[in-house]
Design brief:
InterPro entries: Calcineurin-like_PHP (IPR004843), Metallo-depent_PP-like (IPR029052), MPP_CSTP1 (IPR041867), STPP_CPPED1 (IPR051918). The protein is of the alpha/beta class and 309 residues long. It is 34% helix and 20% strand. The strands form 3 sheets. A 6-stranded mixed sheet has the order 6-7-8-9-11-10. Strands 5-4-3-12-13 form a 5-stranded mixed sheet. The protein has a two-stranded antiparallel sheet with strand order 1-2. It binds fe (ii) ion. The site of fe (ii) ion has 7 residues, from loops.
Amino acid sequence: MAAGEELFLRAKGRTFVGLTEDTEKEWRGPFCFIQAADPQLGLMKAWRIGDCDGGGDEWAEEVELTKKAVQAVNKLSPRPRFMILCGDLVHAMPGTPFRAGQEHDLKEALRGTDAAIPLLFVSGNHDLGNTPTPETVAEYCRAWGDDYFGFWVGGVRCLVLNSQLYFDASACPSLRDAQDAWLEEQLQSEARAPSRHLLVFQHIPLYLRRPDEDDDYFNMQAAIRESLIQRFKQAGVKAVFSGHYHRNAGGCFDGLDMVVSSAIGCQLGEDPHGVRVVVVTADRVIHRYHSLDQLNDRGMDEDLKQLLA
Ligand SMILES: [Fe+2]
């Protein structure tokens, strides 16, 4: 293992070194964190030339954007408690030519993150393949850490899910079942001893606009979507943070806020390259997407900062 590699492997044993229930169970007042998605090194050129399957042979633009995000996040005050990247770390699917180079360069770009801001990773469809296998999941875990795990920050319980196992587990049904049993345990543990807030992070949104929308490439299929929404609501999940859409979207229904954040990398809509600033107070979870330019020039919006004062 190369020096510094452990920085990317802190999700282990279904928890996260340094952000465990033992050390972070107690509420200690408001804090903020950064949620971002889809640096997806390689997509910008692939999209431009119209070859999203075979393209992706250049990724200098995404490297610059990722470095810009890191620089902006490092400057924030108060300091975010963590930064989480919700999937599609790279564009090249497992086993394709540009994969190793993209992963290497993303790690290099992220290495500049302030050591006091833990970096957490969520697996996306491009990281695992659209139909993940035990091998592609193992490969992901070797590179980035556990594909699903729980962690705690200042009294808030967070669950990271591998949404691809819910999207298509045809080649790894036992992995899906294992994740689902783990999820059930977590939700029940929350029911026994509720935390300050319960948050979920995954790559694929449950829905883009409304819980009853039609199935689509960018959301979860209706049956699994409805069942997860039910289980999440019952357990008191306040917000589900996602990416995948490369546009901002989402909506809050019945107290469950589905947050869909646009990309650090390639935009498929009109949003700027950016990340989401999330402020957690005693009774609310407030979030707003910030462009990388704004975050670098002026930091987070003043009204959010005030909530942290
Ligand atoms: Fe993506």
